Amino acid sequence: MSQPHQIDYNNLPAARENSSAAAKQAVSFCERDFLTMAKVPPLHKVLPSALIMPEEGLIDFSKELELDWPATIPDLLAGNSKLAAGESTALGDGAGGLVLLVLRGGGSLANSEETVELRPGDIACLPGNQGIKVTAGKSGISYFFVDDSPLVNYLGWQVKTTERTQFTHFTAEQLKQKLDEYEAAGITASGVFLSHAGLPDEKLVTPHLFAHLNRLMPGARNTVHAHTSPALTYVIHGGNNCFSLLGEPLVNGEIVDPARVDWVDGQLSITPPNLWHGHFNDGDEPILSLVIQPAGLYYNDRTMNFQFADQQ
Prior knowledge:
Number of strands: 21
Radius of gyration: 23 Å
Distance between the termini: 49 Å
CATH class: Mainly Beta
CATH architecture: Sandwich
Number of domains: 1
Oligomer: single chain
């Protein structure tokens, strides 16, 4: 019988001294110890379903997540920033990418090659660690942002972005045009999925980040579904009777005893991974939100696992 290898732990040669620095780094566990460590509580057991964003500051749950760096969920950090007239700040330092939504005021956004004007409703999708700066105009600027610095901190990697992460600017006018087109086509529960020319197939804003300007017309719903990636949803306009239902288990396509989260302007909702959820607009006006997911790795690994309740 042929031998595919020459490993025999029962008959090893004389032991080495194992005094190298590399050997001293080695740590191992038995299965019992590993399984004990692996039983971390799911996100919906340690984080709130929703909260109102502060006018300025980070949403930092690093204590609840037992992390040594700021994080809203394990891979993403969300916050609101506010700059007075003429003030500037760098964006995306220590992150692979960042999504920015202008809330009020205006100003400019600049990288080494160009400067673009920012107005309320603009969305920018940016590479990290490229010295990109936002500068407030005469009336100052306020913006919501999400970056993936927690993932970079966890991996301990240095980011070197490529053409797969581009300096991308969606003007409010461009976004309105798309929303109008979809409304004219009778699409009531969709919105604008954001991407750029460097990722023509993935339909992502960076190799890691998914972004969706989601709109629900009156009476519309995002059908109950689940997916592997968690999500952060910033409510731009919550209307007068829009809400989410979340929970498990699922029986006959409906969530049993779901938790209800009513939508409020300026709210940040946290959707845990693999938890059944749906969004419903029972009001009389359209609602609008910006959804960010750390979904790129899941899509690349073929593990996003979108499931829809009506197909179970």
